[in-house]
Inverse folding.
C-alpha cells in the first residue's frame, strides 16, 4: 500500500506553495499530485512552475502526477487541459471526461475522483481507455468499494481519499467572490485570504460548509485513519491525504505509522484532533450522511 498527497485545493501565494512542496519532498509519501484543479483564475503558479516542482519532487524519489481542472468553462481552459494531457513527462490525473478523451489510449492515466465511477461497467470502460488507477468516488461506501474490488479489471489500482475536507460540488459561480459582493471575473483573488477555505455556519452557529471559490467543501474533515487496516485487507493500493495550510506533515506521518502498524488507529486519531481544521466525519464510508462520525 502506498501513501499519496493530493493536489492543493486552495489558492496559496507562490512563496507558500513552493515552501510547502520543499517540505513535501521530505514527507513519507510515495505519490504527489500537482496542479490547479479548482479555478483557472488562480495564476500564482504557471505551467513552468508546476513542471519545476514536479522535477524537484521526482528527484526526491516521488511519483509525480499532474491533475487536470475539474470544471472546464472556456476554450482557454480546454487548451490548458490539453497541454497538461500532452505534457509527455508526467502521468496525468483526468478529472473530467474531456481530459479522458485527450488521454485515450495515448498513455496510461489516473481516473480522478470526480469521474463518478460507481459500477464495474464504468470502470471497465475507463480501463479500456487507458486508466491504470482509479480514485474511489468520495460518497462511495466501504461495502460498495468491496464489491468493486471483487471485479476489478486486471492491473487496475484502487486509490481512496482518506483525509481532508470533502470537495462536494463545483459551480460556474464563485461563492467566495459573491461573499465579498464581487463579480467572478473581478474577484480580486479573494481566495488568497482563506488558505483553508471560507467556513459557512448555520444560523445556530454550527460549521456547515466551506466555500473555496467555485468549489463547495464539507466543513467537517473526512478522516479514515481508523479504517486503514480494513483497506489493507481489501487490497486498496493507495491512500490519499489532501493538503491543508498547516500540519499536513503531521497528518501524513500519522497515516504512515498506522499503515506500518507502529501506531494504533485510536492513538493516531487522538493526536490528529489538534491538527484538523474541523471536526472529523466518516459517514459516507458507512453509507450514512457524510457529515456524521461513526466512532
Amino acid at each position: 500500500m502506498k501513501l499519496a498527497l493530493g493536489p492543493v485545493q486552495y489558492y496559496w501565494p507562490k512563496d507558500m506553495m513552493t515552501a510547502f512542496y520543499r517540505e513535501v519532498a521530505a514527507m513519507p509519501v510515495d505519490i504527489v499530485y500537482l496542479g490547479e484543479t479548482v479555478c483557472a483564475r488562480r495564476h500564482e503558479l504557471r505551467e513552468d512552475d508546476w513542471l519545476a516542482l514536479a522535477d524537484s519532487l521526482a528527484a526526491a524519489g516521488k511519483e509525480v502526477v499532474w491533475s487536470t481542472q475539474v470544471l472546464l468553462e472556456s476554450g482557454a481552459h480546454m487548451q490548458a487541459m490539453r497541454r497538461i494531457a500532452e505534457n509527455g513527462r508526467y502521468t496525468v490525473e483526468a478529472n473530467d471526461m474531456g481530459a479522458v478523451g485527450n488521454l485515450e489510449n495515448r498513455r496510461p492515466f489516473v481516473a480522478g475522483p470526480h469521474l463518478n465511477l460507481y459500477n464495474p461497467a464504468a470502470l471497465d470502460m475507463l480501463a479500456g481507455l487507458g486508466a491504470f488507477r482509479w480514485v474511489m468516488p468520495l460518497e462511495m461506501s466501504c461495502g460498495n468499494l468491496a464489491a468493486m474490488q471483487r471485479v476489478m479489471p486486471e492491473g487496475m489500482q484502487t486509490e481512496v481519499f482518506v483525509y481532508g475536507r470533502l470537495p462536494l460540488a463545483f459551480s460556474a459561480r464563485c461563492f467566495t467572490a459573491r461573499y465579498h459582493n464581487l463579480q467572478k471575473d473581478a474577484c480580486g483573488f479573494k481566495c488568497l485570504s482563506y488558505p483553508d477555505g471560507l467556513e459557512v455556519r448555520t444560523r445556530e452557529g454550527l460549521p456547515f460548509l466551506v466555500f473555496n471559490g467555485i468549489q463547495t467543501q464539507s466543513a467537517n474533515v473526512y478522516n479514515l485513519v481508523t479504517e486503514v487496516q480494513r483497506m489493507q485487507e481489501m487490497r486498496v493500493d493507495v491512500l490519499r491525504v489532501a493538503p491543508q495550510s498547516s500540519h499536513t506533515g503531521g497528518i501524513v506521518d500519522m497515516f504512515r505509522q498506522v499503515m506500518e502498524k507502529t501506531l494504533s488507529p485510536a492513538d493516531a486519531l487522538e493526536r490528529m484532533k489538534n491538527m484538523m481544521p474541523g471536526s472529523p466525519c466518516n459517514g459516507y464510508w458507512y453509507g450514512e450522511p457524510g457529515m456524521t462520525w461513526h466512532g
